[in-house]
């Protein structure tokens, strides 16, 4: 079609040139013929003479409606786009090299291409500068935000009212138990109702009650050992954001004449404020710490905690209205003023003969005679699974480790283990047959407990004779676990955690939608 004939150009602005004679073919022909790149091409491929070597762009577009319309469309596209990236120049093989065109002309073409890289389009037209501040459009902003997030990897900012909640920091609770023989610390966070996960733990044998039975005072060496262990606990507590803590001291500080003086020194040197608890509180905490080891079939339980300076015993009766706190079912309790440290000091713990062991058992049995315990009911008399013993102390855990023949003590295998009456008797007989060196060589006893373990077995034997049971459950837990359980329950930790998790689930569901 002749552009001067006044005919309507094809729809879409397509060139009327035949196939192979479009824009790219015209530029290649122009290069082969030595024409300037910016010269206006001919629609029919015919020769068009330029007025000079650097003809003004678009000089041949006068009276050309097709070319004008293309330029208008290009300009409108530039204005409509909020930003335009300058197209990268691509290396094009020299078309004239194979057509007999001289090297000089090819070099000029390359120079012209380099010159036109800085801001000119494919046809030599200057590129429009990108708009830095496009007009605001709520629809455009809403559509552009997801694209920006995908391209940059950073989520688009949300309004302040819809900002996502920060992840919840789990609450931490701490419990410290300074006993006659050990200093123990637990840091834990609540998980499922009635349970928690241990975050940090510490335990060290300090023998605070060493020599206490003879002069009723804490020795300087024993207090120094306890202070060193408490300093480690203070560092652990200061390094974590503890929500609540409870630090207790038991029989050694309770019965020593200088117990309060020692606690004042603890405050000065470690900044830890320990409280001395009474025997009833100690018994209830021991029961609370072992509540998860009481099965649903149990109806009567005798729980005992053999300590270093005292031994707590609780009689528990569970009816159909079972409470969430096992300590609420305690009917009777007692605290014997004897433990592994005090008993071994009176009778000797290194060289224990069968006669010495029998004397230890007889002393504890005499103490138990003063404890008036009620009948435990038909479950106890029939010997069914409705009654059993629970032991929480280093003595029973040591017996369990020796029974399992562990190469090293493993709490996961010991805690909750069931031992029959015959197995307990066999382990006590085995320990009694060993001398001090043999007990110290056992990995579950060690030299620190070698002189104490048989005194603990004597206390255990007296309890078994008072309440015979076909089985006993081992608990590697006690006061610290009871403190944590009570603190979390009183503070509403599990209820608060359930609400927090529900809120997080709602946030996640909202984010997915």
How would you describe this protein?
Among the domains are: 20-49 and 58-66, no CATH class; 171-277, Nucleotidyltransferase, domain 5, CATH 3.30.420.40; 293-481, Nucleotidyltransferase, domain 5 (2-Layer Sandwich), CATH 3.30.420.150. Helix content is 42%, strand content 13%. It has helices at residues 23-32, 65-80, 103-116, 138-152, 212-215, 220-238, 251-255, 259-270, 279-289, 340-347, 354-369, 378-382, 394-404, 411-414, 421-433, 436-441, 453-466, 479-490, 493-512, and strands at 172-178, 182-190, 196-205, 242-249, 275-276, 300-306, 311-317, 330-336, 387-391, 418-420, 471-474. The strands form two sheets. The chain has a six-stranded mixed β-sheet with strand order 8-7-6-9-11-10, sandwiched between helices. A five-stranded mixed β-sheet has the order 3-2-1-4-5, with helices on both faces. The longest helix has 20 residues, at 493-512.
**Main β-sheet, in a few words?**
6 strands, mixed
Which CATH architecture of the domain at 293-481 is right?
2-Layer Sandwich
Count of extended strands: 11
Binned, the helix content reads 40-55%
User: What's the CATH class label of the domain at 293-481?
Assistant: Alpha Beta
CATH topology of the domain at 293-481: Nucleotidyltransferase, domain 5
Which stretches are low in confidence, meaning pLDDT under 50 for 5 or more residues running? 1-23, 37-62, 77-104, 118-168
Number of DSSP helices? 19
Distance, first to last CA? 57 Å
Percent of sequence in beta strands: 5-15%
Query: What structural class is derived from the secondary structure elements?
Result: alpha/beta
The CATH superfamily of the domain at 293-481 bears the name: Exopolyphosphatase. Domain 2
Helix-strand string:
HHHHEEEHHEHHEHEEEHHHEHHEHHHEHH
As a whole number of angstroms, the C-alpha radius of gyration is 45 Å
Strand order of the largest sheet: 8-7-6-9-11-10
The averaged pLDDT comes out at 76
